[in-house]
Write a structure and sequence with these properties.
By secondary structure, the protein is α/β, with parallel strands linked by helices. The chain is 40% helix and 14% strand. Helix 1 links the parallel strand 3 and strand 4.
């Protein structure tokens, strides 16, 4: 089985640094290779195991851990995270951390040969592997261990029941744990309006309707605050960024599968999508959006933004889009509120689920499952999640006000960037690690840029936001069919969308043919499959 968050939905691909490696690392963390620090094989249910408090075990034990090593990460044996966890818990690790494609190969070999580690850690498993190897007994169910020994994970389930639904396999077992960050700044990417343009034109209020948005773009074009070669809106994701914030104005959260009022549907077959295409075609025709939107990427976006060449853009942070010299410069840039239209009077905004699955699993080779679940449970506590995400106090951060839990960033040493520094401290750099990041963890920073970003995104988007479609499991047969249908439908839909937006094909004259072709290609079947998976998800406990 495989898990998909959306079937053939609009894909938002944020710009990332592509890093690769060709070799793995295998080393020990303070112990020699063996089943334990002293070669022991006793179960942790013996007198060596402490059900509460620290250390977790009285006499040191060692386990084998496997996970993918990101290029920004230092060797795991050298990370402060593992060293400090070892001191606190009395649990040490032997590391097997291949990089890039080598990890998938090494992982497959480990399962095929039954030469498994005790723990899979990091961005380690997909749900097809979870279900396959869980049913074969190579990954053990975790729910019983969680109930007995993991109060922080249990608290997470109680606070967010949908998280438990999204990591529970169809057989009712939990085979892996997630990384959770559902803070607004983590799951909502907004449109940032250029404050320099607003100030130069004397604009005080931002629009809340599509017509108001159109009028603002016209003012930007007529005023040209960035010069003759500037553009009101800069699109850089092949139109996906436009769909992400404009489709909700017409009543839909996605151009693919979505759940609206408890019913799964395909957004691109709706009247709302047709209205969206007409609206964006209008923007294109009047050159209110860049005419090279299908040909540029993040590098060009960033360069033009730093040069003040556009009035709005879709991005996580305004300081990534625009030239922010001093921290207080960020305050002039504003988040565009959710828009409404004649078709939809209710503000809506799509967001991610905030759930990354498959980041921790215990194998059948593990002689210390109770200790292992207690070890990882700490990462779901408030202090543990900060520790794995940012490193210990005094490294990347320190308290500005310890009583109020307000933190501030410690400047990066000259010649080193933030990701490099974090990569020396924690495996949460580059790939997600198991953790539960609370909203306050992202909010409570004595940092003007972070505070403004959080206030703008949370204040304007959170109340209107929801995930288009949850994380669900598909059966092997369902996934095989979805894969067969998806490639051709996705290609056809993307090609037709571009032709409609750029005016190569008139929308009204070609709409019925578009819808009928999509259905002939299997769009309705995709909805049927997505409905079955959604119904299973909704019925799970």
């Amino acid at each position: 089985m495989k898990k998909i968050s959306v079937v053939l939905l609009m894909i938002i691909s944020t710009a990332v640094l592509a890093l690769s490696g060709c070799s793995g690392e295998k080393a020990t963390n303070g112990t020699k290779e063996g089943n334990g620090a002293n070669g022991t094989t006793e179960k942790t249910t013996s007198g060596n195991f402490n059900e509460t408090g620290y250390p977790i075990v009285n006499e040191a034990i060692s386990l084998k851990i496997m996970g993918p090593k990101h290029a920004v990460q230092a060797p795991w044996k050298d990370m402060v995270f593992f060293q400090e966890m070892s001191k606190m818990t009395n649990m040490n690790f032997e590391f097997d951390t291949p990089t890039g494609e080598a990890y998938a190969e090494r992982k497959n070999l480990a399962f095929a040969s039954d030469q498994l580690p005790d723990i899979f850690f990091g961005y380690a498993l997909n749900t097809a592997e979870e279900v396959k190897y869980g049913s074969e007994g190579k990954l053990i169910p975790l729910e019983g261990l969680i109930e007995k020994y993991a109060p922080n994970i249990q608290a997470m389930f109680e606070a967010m029941p949908e998280v438990k639904k999204s990591i529970t396999a169809p057989d009712g077992h939990i085979y892996s744990l997630p990384s959770i960050n559902r803070a607004p700044v983590a799951i909502y990417n907004p449109v940032w309006v250029n404050g320099d343009w607003l100030n130069k034109l004397g604009i005080k209020e931002l629009p809340t309707t599509t017509e108001g948005f159109y009028e603002l773009l016209k003012k930007f074009k007529e005023g040209s605050p960035g010069g003759a070669d500037s553009v009101p809106f800069m699109s850089w994701l092949g139109g996906a960024d436009l769909a992400w914030f404009l489709m909700p104005a017409f009543g839909h959260l996605s151009t693919g599968t979505e759940v609206v009022d408890g019913k799964v549907q395909y957004g691109a077959l709706s009247d709302g999508y047709k209205a969206y295409l007409k609206f964006v075609n209008r923007l294109w025709t009047e050159k209110l959006i860049n005419q090279d939107m299908y040909n540029i990427g993040f590098t060009e976006l960033s360069a033009r933004g730093k040069d003040n060449k556009f009035g709005m853009g879709y991005m996580c942070c305004a300081n990534v889009l625009y030239n922010v010299v001093k921290p207080e410069d960020i305050l002039k840039h504003k988040v565009l509120p959710p828009l409404t239209s004649e078709l939809n009077a209710t503000p809506m905004y799509p967001g991610g689920t905030g759930i990354t699955t498959g980041v921790f699993a215990i194998t059948s080779k593990n002689k210390y499952p109770e200790a292992s679940i207690r070890w990882v449970d700490y990462l779901y506590s408030p202090d543990g999640s900060i520790f794995v995400q940012y490193g210990p106090e005094g490294t990347t951060w320190e308290y500005a006000d310890k009583e109020k839990k307000i933190r501030k960033t410690i400047p990066v040493p000259e010649g080193e960037d933030v990701s490099q520094r974090q990569g020396k401290l924690t495996p949460d750099a580059g790939y997600p690690a198991p953790k539960w990041t609370r909203d306050d963890t992202e909010k409570d920073w004595q940092d003007v840029i972070n505070q403004h970003r959080y206030a703008e995104i949370d204040g304007k988007l959170t109340k209107a936001a929801q995930a288009p479609y949850p994380l669900v499991y598909n059966t092997d047969e369902e996934q095989e069919r979805l894969s067969a249908l998806g490639t051709d439908i996705g290609k056809y839909q993307s090609e037709m969308e571009a032709k409609f937006i750029t005016g190569q094909l008139p929308i009204d004259e070609n709409w019925d043919k578009f819808v009928s072709t999509m259905k002939k290609m299997g769009a309705d079947e995709i909805v049927d499959i997505a409905t079955q998976a959604y119904d299973r998800w909704a019925a799970s406990k």
